[in-house]
Amino acid sequence: MNRIDRLTGMILLLQSHRVITAEKIAAHFEISVRTVYRDLAALGEAGVPIIGEAGMGYSLMRGYHVPPVMFTENEAAALFLSGEVTEQIADESLRDALRDALMKIRAVLPTERRDYLNRLSRSIRVSLPLLSGSDEDRQSLMPLQQAVVRKQCVALTYDAGRRGEITKRVVEPLGLVFYGRQWHLIAHCQLRNATRDFRLDRMNEWEVLAQQFSGHDDFSLKEFLAEEIAASQVIPTVIDFAAGVMERVRTELYSSSLSETKLPDGRVRVECLVSCTRWMASWLMSYGLDAEVVAPPELRQEMLTVAVQIQQRYRDAEVFSSY
Fold it and tell me: Where is the HTH deoR-type domain (predicted)?
C-alpha cells in the first residue's frame, strides 16, 4: 500500500472509531507506531482535524466527515457478493436494509462501474443450504441486533429441544452468531445466571424490553465460542466416504476440526469431532453405502442398530396387509 492510500485509509479508520490508539492503527496497517505518528502529523498539516487525547488515543473532531468514497471495480463487486451471501442467511428485516444500502451504493457509482455490477449480478448466483423453519420464524435479526447494541433486555419463551423443556426467561443479549445453518442469540440468562446459547428458531415468543442492562464490557464473543467448543463433550470420529459425495459432505458437515485424507482405494477418510452419535448415525444413513464408520465403536453400533430397525420395519408384513 502506498502512502497516499494509507493516509486515506487512516482517515476512514479514524472516522469509524470514536477513539483509537496509535498501536491499533499500526496493527491495522502493519506499520510501526513511529510511522503512525508521522502520518498523523502529515494529516494534521494537511488540515485534517485530528485530536489526540493523552492515555486514550486519537479521534477526528466531531462534525468532520470525509466526502463520499468512490468504490473501485473490485470493491463494488465484493460488496455485491457479500450482499448475495447475506440474502441467503438473513431474515426479511435485514434483507430490506441490505437492498436499500446496495441501491444507494449503485446510485453513486460511475456509469461504467454500475454497468459492470449489473452484468455481474446477472451472471452470479449464491445458493446455500436452506435454513430450517419458515421465514416468519426468523423475523428477529434486526430487533435483536438493535437490542445487543443498545443493551436492552429480551423476554422470551424458549424450547430446549430434545429435553422438551419450555421456559420463560429474561436475557441480556450479547451477540448474534450464525453457525450450523442457524442463527443463535448469545445472551446472559437471568434465570440461570450464566451466558447461554439460544437458537432463534426455538424462541417461540420474544419481546425486546425497555429495561436496559449494564456490565459485560469485557465479554468476547470469539472467546465464548472457543470456550464452548473446548468444553463440549466431543467424540473423535473417523468416516470413509466415496469420493463422489465429498462435495455434499463438505457442505453439510459442520465441525470445528475436520481433516480429509485420500485413501488408496479412492475413498476419502474424514476425521472430525462430533457431539451426538445418534444425530451422526441418522445423517450418515442418508449416504447409504457411500459412507462407512471407522471409529468410534459406539457410532458403528448406532449405525447397526438403526439399520436393523429399518430392516425390521420393512419386513413387517402387517404394514402391507393393513395398507
Answer: 3-58
